[in-house]
Structures are given as C-alpha cells and as structure tokens.
Amino acid sequence: MKHARIDKPLAFLIFALVTGGSLIFVSAAFGLLGRGFSSITSVAFNHLVLGVGGGTVLLIIALNINYRYWRQFAPYIFAFALAAMLLVFVPNLGFAHGGGQRWIVFFGVSFQPSEFLKIASIFLAAAYYSAIRTKTETFTWGVGGLAAILIAPVVLLVMQPDIGTLGIICMSVVAIFFAAGARMRDIAILLCVALISLAILASVKVHVKERIVTFFNPSQNQQTESYQITQSLIAIGSGQVFGRGLGQGVQKFTYLPEAMGDSIFAVAGEEFGFIGSGIIVLLFLALALRGYVVAARTTDMFGGLLAVGISTYLAGEAFINIAAMLGMAPLTGVPLTFVSQGGSAMLISLLSAGILLNISRQQKRG
C-alpha cells in the first residue's frame, strides 16, 4: 500500500474546475464595465488573488495535514463555527446584504461564517458516525444523532436566513449518515420531515414562498421575482450548441443579475454553449464519483465518511446552482463551486478539496 501519492484523476478534476472557473469569472467580471463600474481590477484581485490564491494556499496546507487529526478537533471546530455564526447578529460586526444577515467584518474584510459551518458540520458528522459505528441503524443513535448535529445550524441559518446553505449542510450530513449504514426507513422519514419543514418555511418566510411559486410558474412576474431565471434561460439559450466564445457574451453587461455570483453558469452557457456547459456538468459529476471512489478505498471509517461528505458538498452545491439556473430547481443563491465570486466560499471549497486530496493519499491502491 502506498501513501505518498495523491489521486491524480481527482487532482486533475479540481485543477480543471478551478482554472476553468477563473477564466469564466474573468469573463463575467467584464460585465461590470457595461454597468458603469470602474472597479473591475479590484474585483478581479479579490477573487483571483485573495480567493483562488489564498484558497490554493489552504489547499496545500490541508493536503499536508493527515486527515485523521481533524477527527479529534471536530467538536471544537463545530463549536467555533457556531460561535462565528452568532457574530453576524452582533451590531457593528455583522452586516446584511441582499436580505440576509450573513456576514461579519474584521478590519474591513468580510467573511461569511456559514461557509465554514459547511466543513465543520461534515467534520462532526464523520467523527460521530465513525465513533458509534454499529449503533447507526438504531433510531436513537442514528436519527437522534443526526438531529443533534443539525439542530443548531438549522436554527441559525433560518434566522439569517440562508436556506441554500442549510440545504447543502443537510445534504452533506445526510449523505454521511447514509454511508455510515442508515436504514432506508430512516432516510424516508428524513425526506418526509424535509418536505414538511420546507412547507412550514414557505408559510412563514415570504422569500421562500416567492421562490417556490416562481419555480412552478416562471412566466409570472417576469420583471420582478422571475427576472433572474428568465434572463438566465435567455443567456443559456442564446449560447446554442457551441456558444458565442469566451468573453463574447452580452447578457452579463446589462441584463443578467449576479453575473459573477450565482448566475455565472448562465454566463458560461452563453459563451460556451451546450457543449461547454455539458463539460462543466460532467466535470462536477466526475468530481463527485471520484470522491466516492476515494471514500470507498480509505483505510478507516472516518476517512471514508469525511470523503463522502466533502464530495457531496462540493459537487452537490454546484448541481444545485446549475439546476436553479436551468429552471430545474428554485433559486437559492448558492454559488457555483470553484467558479462564483465569493472569497469565503472559495477559501472553504479549496480547503475542503485539500482535505479530500489528503484522504486520497491514504487510500488502498488496487
């Protein structure tokens, strides 16, 4: 068994997505010029140098830390993440944007604690289910443990609100629960609880209800609630088969909201067409599948569950974003992994990728 080499296919997929994502981001950033902004240089610097560059440093650090060390610190990392989440509600420290109280500012630098909570929840779930092992199939230890892990994130993320991040955390933790040996009956119960919870949220949170209504009836209110999905579909459709070419998209200049953020897949769809968009989807699918292969080959249960959680998080987040841009899911504001603007998301995504690569170093070689 060799432990020194990382999984080359996994490393290639991460490199391809980050490199390709940077090109797409730069193209989308030029859309600022059409909107009268002159700060394109600072935007590009923040994303490429601080986000991608800083994230690459974190990836290299995580790559060289044995993933088993994360297990003993998992409860403390999770507690720290929850404490950071509470800071967004502190006056003069936390601030709101786009209808959500999700950011904290230290010395002029903003950070979104919910991004860190994603990997912290995965750490805790992997550590917990690898510790109880045979008890996972019992309702008390299996579903009860899952509820104990998710209760605080659910409360804090609903308060912000940040339902998209909550969905990613729940999806990743449930994937770990499933991989640990959960019974299908318990998974079915969780699915029912999720649907009921979504219905309750829609009844008490107006923005959740509006997004669900828009999803089922996108032709309604095309200049307000449905504007983003309408412009996204126009951009993607205008790319046709081969696209307009890198940098040649027009929707990003005036019409497409959040062209550098959660709508960036629409920019890629317009410029690279069906072929390019399909390649992006296939790259994320391959990332998920390769991550699960790494999980299956790990020498210990914690590493396997950790790989499952990280792979689900990185690929699942991308698929939720892409589905929303194609009108196949409600808009959530979830970023496109390794591509969308957002320093916090990029840093944590690359840190998680580094941990996954470190796990691949320890896998059994067939």
Q: How much beta, percentage-wise?
A: under 5%
What level of helicity do the residues show? 55-70%
> What number of structural domains do the residues give?
1
Low-confidence residue ranges: none
Strand order, largest beta sheet: 1-2-3
Give the number of DSSP strands: 3
**What is the H/E order?**
HHHHEEEHHHHHHHHHH
Shape: globular
Helix count, per DSSP?
14
| Structural class computed from helices and strand pairing | mainly alpha
Radius of gyration: 20 Å
Mean pLDDT: 89
- Major pleated sheet: 3 strands, antiparallel
The separation of the N and C termini measures: 9 Å
Protein name: Probable peptidoglycan glycosyltransferase FtsW
InterPro entries: Cell_cycle_FtsW-rel_CS, FtsW/RodA
Transmembrane segments: 12-33, 45-65, 77-96, 116-132, 139-157, 163-180, 187-208, 272-293, 305-326, 338-359
Keywords: Cell shape, Glycosyltransferase, Membrane, Peptidoglycan synthesis, Transferase, Transmembrane, Transmembrane helix
